[in-house]
Amino acid sequence: MYKDIETWVTRGIIDRINADPTIRVSSRNGDALITGEILAVDRTTLRETTSNQPGTVQITVLAEYSFYDNVQRRYIVENVPIRSSETGISPGIYEASRGGTRDEGERGAADQLAAEIVRRTIGMW
């Protein structure tokens, strides 16, 4: 249902992990496994134009993720809900009145969600 967003979040997580020289992404036989699911994507109009059309729009992605430590054979976190809007950086906002697209908002929200998942996960490990 949210295939593009799932792909963007996955790619964002992989890119961020690979950017850290102390860890790397490997096959499912690695030391740890991050899994998740996109539960919902919300579109909120933050500002309307004078003709009552969406001007500024925010996309928020609601997901849940788990982080399993294969070495210790236990979940560090399991099915934790997370929203792209929790980061406080205004992710997923686009200017529809200036030609911005929903795709642009979804990519931004997915990128922020990936960043927050990696930040929380690496911090717990």
Description:
This protein is of the alpha+beta class and 125 residues long. The chain has helices spanning 3-19, 102-124, and strands at residues 32-48, 54-69, 74-83, 93-95. Strands 1, 2, 3 and 4 form a four-stranded antiparallel sheet that branches. The longest helix has 23 residues, at 102-124. It is elongated and about 60 Å long. It starts with a helix and ends with a helix. The model has no long low-confidence stretch (mean pLDDT 89).
Give the arrangement of secondary structure elements.
Elements: H1 3-19, E1 32-48, E2 54-69, E3 74-83, E4 93-95, H2 102-124
Antiparallel strand pairs: 1-2, 2-3, 2-4
Q: Any descriptors?
A:
125 residues; alpha+beta; four-stranded antiparallel β-sheet; elongated
Tell me the radius of gyration: 16 Å
Mean of pLDDT = 89
The percent range for helix content is 25-40%
**What string, H for helix and E for strand, traces the elements in order?**
HEEEEH
Number of helices: 2
Outline the low-pLDDT stretches. Answer: none
| SS-based class | alpha+beta
Question: What is the count of β-strands?
Answer: 4
Largest sheet: 4 strands, antiparallel
End-to-end distance: 31 Å
Measured by DSSP, the beta-strand proportion falls in 35-45%
Envelope shape: elongated
Give a summary of the structure in a few sentences:
By secondary structure, the chain is α+β, with helices and mostly antiparallel strands. It has helices at residues 3-19, 102-124, and strands spanning 32-48, 54-69, 74-83, 93-95.
